[in-house]
Amino acid sequence: MKKKRIVHLLPKRRLLKTWLIMRFIVLFMCVSAMQLTAAVYSQEVKVTLSVKDASFESVIRLLEANTEYTFLYEDRHIAEIGGLNLNFRDTDIKVVLDKCLQGTNLSYRLMNNHTIVIQRGVAVDTTKQKAPQKMSVSGVVKDVKGEVLPGVTIRIKNTQLGFVTDIDGKFKFDFPKQDTVILIFSFVGYKTQEFQVQNDKPITIVLKEDVTEMDEVVVTGIFTKAKESYTGAVTTITAKDLQRVGNRNLVSSIRNIDPSFNIADNIDIGSDPNKLPDITVRGSSSLDVGVRDLQEDSRSTQSTNQPLFIMDGFEITLERMMDLDENQVESITLLKDASATAMYGTRGANGVVVIVTKKPEAGRIRVTYKGSLNIEAPDLTSYDLLNAREKLQYEWAAGLYENTNANQTQELWDLYNQRKMDAERGVNTYWLKYPVRTGVGHKHSLRFEGGDEVYRYSVGLSYNDIAGAMKGSNRRTFNGNVFLSYKYKNLTFQNDLQVSSNRSYNSPYGTFNDFAKINSYWTPYDEEGNLIKVLENYYYNSLNRRNFVYNPLYNAKLPSKDESRYTQIQNNFAIEWHILPELFVRGRLGITSKTDRADVYKSAKHTDFDNYSEDDYGRKGTYSYGTGEAFNYEADFTLNYSKNFMEKHQLYVGLGYNFAQEKNEFFTILAEGISNVNMDFLGMASMYEKDGHPQSSEGFSRRMGGIANVNYTYDRRYFIDASCKIEGSSKFGSDNRYAPFWSIGIGWNLHHEAFMMDNNLLNVARLKLSYGTSGSQAFNSYQAMTTFKDYGGSSYQGWYGVYLMAMGNSDLGWQKTKQLNVGAELEFFNGRIRVNADYYNKVTDDLLSDITLPSSSGFGSYKANVGQVANTGVELGVNVYVLRDTKRDLSWLIGGTLAHNKNEIKKISNSLEFLNEQMSSEDGGNPSFMYEEGQSMNTIFAVKSKGIDPSNGKEIYIKKDGTETYTWDAKDKVPCGINEPKIWGNLNTMFRYKGITLNAIFGYRYGGQMYNYTLVSKVENIKPYDNADKRVLYDRWKNPGDNAFFKGVRDFTATNATSRFVMDENTLECRSISLGYDWEAKWLDQVGISYLTITGYMEDVFRISSIKQERGLSYPFSRKFSVSLSVRF
Q1: For residues 167 and 8, is the Cβ–Cβ distance under 8 A?
Q2: Fewer Cβ atoms within 10 A, N terminus or C terminus of the chain?
Q3: Percent of the chain clearing pLDDT 70 (strictly above)
Q4: What is the reported pLDDT for 1080?
Q5: Multiple choice CATH, 33-120, 3.30.420.40, 3.40.50.880, 3.55.50.30, 1.10.10.10
Q6: Cβ(689)–Cβ(602) under 8 Å?
Q7: Which residues are within 8 A (CB) of 650 and not within 5 positions of it... i.e. 6 or more apart?
Q8: Which residues pair with 545 in a beta bridge?
């Protein structure tokens, strides 16, 4: 029998008005093959109905959906009535039913309570006869915590009759008497429960939460698929998982769960809250647009390999993802292979992160609050600098105080003696302490929600104040949202309004590394407590160089401003129309508006202006102002059909269409001449930047596409899944704007085979194979077009000229990624052991890069699809319940994940070949990251080294032909390592006993290489007047016969990139430890509290590595501690 729910009906005028609106929507979506309208006139019901070859059951559904009548029948009585061709207009419903039942042995009764009973026998109009005998049932429905549940659906088993609980969770209804009455109670988020009625006494039903609901489906952001028959490689993260793994941000939490979501360890930006991380999923598959820029600082490479972020069906930025309130998130799904990402067409090649926010729960109004106190303590353990005495020893050994000029020699000795006296009397300034602090921040999240099965609402507010490890570094974010949901019969309307406001402050103390260079025998203040501006201004003849050192605290103490802000408003509207139980249509529209602003002010007293000439004196004091706007909209329509037939067959069909537009613009001006140091206001400037002018940028793009997805399952054992999307984008050439993307996958639920049914060892065995394509378009809006720029005001005979910026390419198309994935999901001993394994082969064709043009063309290069990159890897995850005793609330889980990826460049353009030749002839302390066929995109190129010659302290280099030399030659650069581990992953454990939960998560990396930049910049390429790593004193070559790793202490020649500094990296780090307690005391109920939880977190607790290097050069890393309180009323 079918489920039937009776809901409160709208007044008839409102009903008519609402129906007209709905009819317009239906016509607009063009998805209905049948039309039915109804109008109610006093006691007579007339309908307009037109169907072809329809079943009687489908006619009943149409009549129920558009009249106030409820039908009561048995499936077996009407199952064979079909082939109905009806065409009525303003006809009495009785005439329609007579026509449907003509020639059958069925009749119907029209009850006074708007119920039509279909049964065998002769038709009797009960409006004129005595009503049949009835029975009554009443009671209340609660959850396990004793909270009443309004809006619970109650139906009588094997009938079509159903009801819902009221606002107090109570129910009472009458129905025709039956021999056996079984009530079925169902509610979203709770397990369905049956109850057999024995008498007419009130009953109490307790529903339990369905904690496995998220485990049974895969949310792709477009379609929701059954996990049992899904062929894609995905990781689903629930709200409980997020709470367990950390209290920092969503990006770090995902990394702690799935290692394929890889965050590059950037030793430059450290824990700066205002910097975005570099993220990849299953390796890098795109060349960086600014390839040449990578050589300027090879320690950090931002790329176009970032995954796509989708929230509630619409794209969001990484910045928005970082600022999201994790307490508003219901689940996160990481889509990794082509079978999972093909439906995103041009945007899915780098992986997709799908975020689903929490929807309101039905019931009385509930209030949820979570607050946390967050502490960030700077982690400076990687710095091992010379103290005052050690620094003087190093300076003496390096010959800083030696000179052939006798007069200056005495002067140098006096300088040395004065510094040594200062050191002996206790001067040993730890400069690293001045720009850092123990940051104390706080975070709050408040949520109101309630409603019933018809109306639901929620209001969320959150505020996050991050106090960084450097003084003056803050990030403050406010989020708010209002969600409304309304159900009318088979239509559901949803609207989610989100507002986000952020303000970021960068530290006035500048670059952290500036403080690491200052000698510890200097002090920032003089004897009278005044801040010293210049710490040293001295010419060293031994180095033939003047050392001029500003006190880094001087600029930090001046009035300044370095901040940015944004405000984003996003509104998502959705309509779902459930035409049939197996068919529904959904339409969504998302509109996003964002404004940005950035302000940077430097006082006229800033040291940047000290060298200004007298003519430029009035230019001192600058203000940089930037502002921008973005407006995006996106809409999609999907049709979902799911049907089980002939017991063993299950079919799912999804069709969709989407279109989107993105528009943005940004303007920047730099003004000069703010003489009043306390006036950090743009209006106080007297002029624009000298020889400069306002700068601007803008972008505009559109995309559209259609998608089809089909999934077929046979007997829950064998399944096949296929997707196809054709998408077009204005970002690419006019001759190549549309491209198809597709995927196909097959799977086998081995555990549903007959020979596995009684197997107590292996409970789940699912094998999957998929292959498909996806694209990437994370590039400039106008890269396919020929663009020009004016000469900045220059004219000739009244005409203003322009010059060519970029050559267009009408054939420019998408990067296409082909991916093969083989996966397995295994569960042993009733879920005590779970294993997930995937192998993938990912090849990106039509790689976007530059093509070199001949010099006669007047332009260097243009964009084209020339290149190929391959990524091959393995992912493995294992979770084991060592203890699991639900009765005693005792469990202990141990788990681990492992990832391996091999990256290889298959083909590159001639422009990159030219760049490689150029880079192979350049010197420098940094290694070269060149792009060569057959090598990884992360290969480190340097000259091979045999080490330091013990006889003279010089480095011995190995040329390409194998010969040895003391002369470094850039042409001898060869691959010396890969800046990517062979394997990496996570280790985790969770122990729970009677409300106490302990979690710990560790990360590891093994087998990769890293270029130790500290050894170059702080040990060898260091001048003796700057502070340095202690190895400069203790580990450098000093005398013949010394077996040293570093060259001679008095060798000041530049150290270029050699394999001597390419080191194996093996790292273990403790990423998160948390300890929480869930109160279950009776006093909570007495004060109206549903639950109360207190949790303490420690993040980035420790790090052990085979490489000793300075980390956090521009901004230090930090350890994080927090205490959170969660309560629900």
Answers
A1: no
A2: C
A3: 84
A4: 73
A5: 3.55.50.30
A6: no
A7: 229, 642, 643, 644, 712, 713, 714, 716
A8: 540
Q: Label the pairing between strands 649-672 and 560-580.
A: unpaired
How far apart CA 747 and CA 228 sit, in angstroms, is 9
| C-alpha pair distances (Å), 879 with each of 154, 215, 251, 835, 892 | 38, 15, 22, 7, 10
SS (H, E, C) 894-928: EEEEEEEEEEEEEECCHHHHHHHHHHCCCCCCCCE
Q: Which residue has the higher pLDDT, 349 or 105?
A: 349
For the beta carbon of residue 761, count every other beta carbon within 10 angstroms. 9
What per-residue confidence (pLDDT) applies to 35?
Answer: 36
H-assigned helices in 168-273: 239-245, 250-257
Which letter does DSSP use for residue 948 in this model?
A: E
Instruction: Name the residue with tokens 């809409």.
Output: 635
Q: At what angle do helices 406-424 and 388-397 cross, to 10 degrees?
A: 160
pLDDT band at 28 (very low <50, low <70, confident <90, very high): very low
The structure tokens listed for 467 are 């106090």
The 3-class secondary structure across 1023-1039, one letter per residue, is CCCCCCECHHHHCEECC
Q: Which residues contact 1112 (CB under 8 A, 6 or more apart)?
A: 267, 268, 270, 271, 379, 380, 382, 512
Neighbour count for residue 886 (Cβ, 10 Å): 7
Write down the pLDDT at residue 791.
64
Q: Is 86 helix (H, G, I), strand (E, B) or coil?
A: strand
Handedness of CA 1102, 1105, 1108, 1113 (dihedral sign): negative
12-26, 549-563, 636-650, 1085-1099: least confidently modelled range: 12-26
pLDDT of residue 14: 40
414 Ramachandran zone, left/alpha/beta (phi>0; psi -120 to 50): alpha
pLDDT band at 326 (very low <50, low <70, confident <90, very high): confident
Domain ranges of the chain: 33-120, 238-369
pLDDT in tens, 848-878: 766 555 544 455 555 666 678 899 999 999 9
Q: For tokens 């990030």, what's the residue? A: 475
pLDDT tier for residue 530 given thresholds of 50, 70 and 90? very high
Full-model pTM: 0.78
Shortest CA distance to 281 belongs to which of 337, 221, 326?
337
Alpha-carbon gap, residue 398 to 63, rounded angstroms: 96
Q: Which residues pair with 1123 in a beta bridge?
A: 373, 1096
Which has the closest alpha carbon to 313: 761, 646, 633?
633
The helix/strand/coil state of 513 is helix
Q: Are 530 and 551 in contact (CB under 8 A)?
A: no
Cα distances (angstroms) measured from residue 1091 to each of 229, 993, 1079, 1129: 36, 17, 7, 8
Q: pLDDT higher for 149 or 393?
A: 393
Contact 206, 191 (CB under 8 A): no
Taking the C-alpha atoms of residue 487 and residue 482, their distance in angstroms, rounded to an integer, is 17
Report the alpha-carbon distance of residue 746 to residue 767 in Å, rounded.
8
Least confident window among 89-93, 513-517, 701-705, 955-959: 89-93
**For residue 276, which of 241, 243, 247, 309 has the smallest C-alpha distance?**
309
Is residue 421 predicted with pLDDT exceeding 50?
yes
Alpha-carbon distance of 501 to 332, in angstroms, equals 23
Higher pLDDT, 1011 or 22: 1011
Q: What percent of the chain has pLDDT over 90?
A: 45
| Confidence tier at 778 by pLDDT (50, 70, 90) | low
Q: Compare 691 and 387 and report the one with higher pLDDT.
A: 387
- Give residue 79's pLDDT: 72
Look at the domain 238-369 and name its fold. Answer: Ferric Hydroxamate Uptake Protein; Chain A, domain 1 (2.170.130)
